[in-house]
Amino acid sequence: MDTDRNAWPLNPLPAGVWLILLPIIGIEAAFQAGNQGWIGGAQAVGWRLAAITRYGFHDHVMTLILDGRTPGATELLRFLTYGFIHGGAVHLMFAVVMTAALGKMVGEVFPTRALLAVWFAALIIGAATYGMIVDDPQRRLFGAYPGVFGLVGAFTFLMWVDLAAKGANKYRAFVLIGMLLLVRLLLGLFSGGDVTWIADLAGFAAGFLISFVVSPGGWPRVVARLRQR
């Protein structure tokens, strides 16, 4: 069998995935370099904690909105910035691997703007839902996982449409999210009652639902596929 010896050993990722991953990886690289004393001096050791405090999401933002008050620009940016900050290398690693894998599968069907719409909608809806349910201003939500679960939602949408078009049981598409959510809940229980799974689940729902709008062909394509049964 002929092979291209000059081919890149890794499958190329869609541009939208790189637009998500590069700032995430760059921020973590800065934290790691600061911890090692390579940049920033002595104060760099506290960069991660300072970033989580300043840019992580907390429920007070939603309290202001629900009370009819307008949060400042810095507070509103927390709906997005929290997704680019992680608690450490392991926390980051799983987010990067899952974003790359799911982003590639979704990005092969969705254009770049649709992929980014899924990601950022999942971050926003995930944070908003978390803020409406959790009542702890001292707790910060951070990490890319609501966005990752948004990509799970988009992938589930693609499977759902494909299964429906084939006349198969379309609810099989939800097996992946069921397994991931079970694992997420178990991890939450073993880590002292972590409730950030609320944001992840909301991110999944946002990713699945917005796919009806941003997927190629949008809602008419879905209806046409379903009518082919």
Summarize the structure in words.
The chain has 229 residues and is mainly α. The protein has 10 helices and no strands. The radius of gyration is 19 Å and the shape is globular. Residues 1-10 have low confidence and may be disordered.
Spell out the key features of this protein:
229 residues, mainly alpha, 10 helices, disordered N terminus
List the SSEs and their pairings.
Layout: H1 15-35, H2 47-55, H3 60-66, H4 73-81, H5 89-107, H6 112-133, H7 145-165, H8 175-190, H9 197-214, H10 218-227
Radius of gyration: 19 Å
Q: Tell me about the largest β-sheet.
A: none
Instruction: Give the tally of β-strands.
Output: 0
Low-confidence runs: 1-10
Query: Which sequence of SSEs, written as H and E, runs from N to C?
Result: HHHHHHHHHH
> Helix proportion of residues, in percent?
55-70%
Number of helices: 10
Which structural class matches the secondary elements? mainly alpha
Outline: globular
Give the DSSP E fraction (strand runs of 2 or more residues). Answer: under 5%
What's the average pLDDT?
A: 86
Distance between the termini: 40 Å
Short description:
Helices cover 66% and strands 0% of the residues. It has ten helices and no strands. The protein has helices at 15-35, 47-55, 60-66, 73-81, 89-107, 112-133, 145-165, 175-190, 197-214, 218-227.
